[in-house]
């Protein structure tokens, strides 16, 4: 099938995971490139740009977290999903705090993985095309693009579930981003967060 949906980069030292994800996404019309380690992936980025990256958190050599730091994932132009086993959840949460889009737990359901990747690519596309107005308030410069997206959903009144569906990430990941945003902006609760953003929009700082 011709590549029509974009290109997926899969970085995992487990050949069976690479093969399974290749089959799943190629059947859905995506192009797929696979890499057995972080160095191969980083070399490929010099000449090719993915629509989305699926990155194993545990690999020999560079770990998923090392790679996130290498590509400066907070400003990376494509969504990056972390692949983790259930025992790696704390590390996956650390990856999201570092700027990863979301994490996918093994064993994964094919339909769920494709849906989440498709929604995340669409969300990034809207962001790049200026679909949402830029946030402007004290501390906004410290937020990653993904954190700004989450903040806009929160201040727009969306629940974690609604925000997750629109951004192509799980409600649990929205919670992680929300906690990180509140820490960066010094907000004590969600209401405080809304006040910081909305008073800046109206110019009412009193």
Give a brief description:
The chain is of the alpha/beta class and 206 residues long.
Strand order of the largest sheet: 2-1-3-4-5
Low-confidence stretches: 202-206
Distance between the amino and carboxyl termini: 59 Å
- Helix fraction, binned, reads 40-55%
Mean pLDDT: 83
State the oligomer: single chain
Structural class: alpha/beta
Taking all Cα atoms into account, the compactness measure Rg is: 17 Å
Q: How many β-strands, per DSSP? A: 5
- Element order: H for helix, E for strand: EHEHEHEHEHHHHH
User: DSSP strand (E) fraction?
Assistant: 5-15%
Rough outline = globular
Characterize the main sheet.
5 strands, parallel
Query: How many H/I helices?
Result: 9
Topology (SSEs and partners):
Layout: E1 7-11, H1 15-27, E2 31-35, H2 38-44, E3 52-56, H3 64-70, E4 80-84, H4 89-97, E5 102-105, H5 110-128, H6 145-155, H7 160-167, H8 171-185, H9 190-202
Parallel strand pairs: 1-2, 1-3, 3-4, 4-5
Explained architecture:
Strands 2-1-3-4-5 form a five-stranded parallel β-sheet, sandwiched between helices. It is built from nine helices and five strands, in the order E-H-E-H-E-H-E-H-E-H-H-H-H-H. It is about 50% helix and about 10% strand. Residues about 200-205 have low confidence and may be disordered. The chain has helices spanning about 15-25, 40-45, 65-70, 90-95, 110-130, 145-155, 160-165, 170-185, 190-200; strands at about 5-10, 30-35, 50-55, 80-85, 100-105. Helix 6 packs across helix 8 (about 170-185). The protein is of the alpha/beta class and about 210 residues long.
């Amino acid at each position: 099938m011709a590549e029509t949906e974009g290109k997926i980069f899969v970085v995992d030292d487990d050949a069976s995971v690479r093969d399974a994800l290749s089959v799943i996404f190629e059947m859905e019309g995506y192009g797929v490139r696979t890499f057995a380690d972080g160095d191969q992936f980083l070399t490929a980025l010099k000449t090719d740009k993915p629509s989305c990256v699926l990155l194993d958190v545990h690999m020999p050599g560079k770990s998923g977290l090392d790679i996130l730091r290498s590509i400066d994932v907070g400003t990376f132009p494509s969504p990056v999903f972390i692949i983790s086993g259930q025992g790696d959840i704390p590390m996956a949460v650390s990856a999201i705090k570092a700027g990863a889009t979301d994490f996918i737990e093994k064993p994964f359901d094919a339909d769920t993985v494709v849906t989440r990747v498709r929604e995340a690519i669409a969300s990034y596309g809207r962001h790049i095309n200026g679909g949402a107005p830029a946030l402007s308030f004290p501390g906004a410069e410290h937020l990653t693009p993904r954190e700004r997206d989450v903040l806009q959903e929160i201040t727009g009144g969306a629940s974690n579930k609604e925000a997750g569906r629109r951004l192509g990430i799980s409600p649990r990941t929205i919670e992680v981003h929300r906690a990180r945003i509140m820490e960066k902006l010094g907000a004590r609760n969600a209401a405080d967060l809304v006040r910081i953003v909305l008073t800046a929009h109206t110019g009412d700082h009193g």
